[in-house]
Amino acid sequence: MPTEAQRPGDLAIKDTAMRRCLTLLAMKTIARFYRCDGPCVPIAPWVIVKKGEDIDLLTEAATMIFIASQTNIPVPHVYCSFIRKKSTYIVMERIPGKTLAASWPGLSDLEREHVLMQLRNIIQELRALPAPDYSDYNWINAQMTKMMTTNGPKSSA
């Protein structure tokens, strides 16, 4: 019986019943021992699960794999991604450390300049990537239409 994530055009990665089951079990049990921050739930010192109700998380997982394979930009390794009961999950490598926002106030001017140079190099590397092959135009068009109708302009009333 096909799962929700096995529809044509889906971007699920290594989606198996065993991976789904273990991920959901870990989120119900082991995750309680870790501090949760937003949509990301740690399930081990080296693994984190990002959960949301948006198909864009599958696109995010596929984009991370694409960037890792085509550039030298460091991104977390994606172990799997799937959809279950209208929720999307990305199981990925957990990178320990502080966020840039938390670290920025304590950085010296020289350290800030170094960070900005790294960001500049990352952006240049991303801009050098070739445009993706949109061979599945119908699926992309449907996703864009869905985004525009559900996330369209908000009234300013």
Q: Taking all residues together, what is the mean pLDDT?
A: 78
Order of helices and strands: HEEHEEHHH
Strand content: 15-25%
Kindly report how far apart the N and C termini lie.
47 Å
The residue ranges in which pLDDT falls below 50 over 5 or more consecutive positions are 1-9, 151-157
The helix count comes to 5
Strand order of the largest sheet: 1-2-4-3
Radius of gyration equals 18 Å
How would you sum up the major sheet?
4 strands, antiparallel
Class from helix and strand fractions: alpha+beta
InterPro entries: AGP_Transferase, Kinase-like_dom_sf
Protein name: Aminoglycoside phosphotransferase domain-containing protein
Organism: Epichloe festucae (strain Fl1)
Description of the molecule:
This protein is of the alpha+beta class and about 160 residues long. It is built from five helices and four strands. β3 (about 80-85) and β4 (about 85-95) form a beta hairpin. The radius of gyration is 18 Å and the shape is flat.
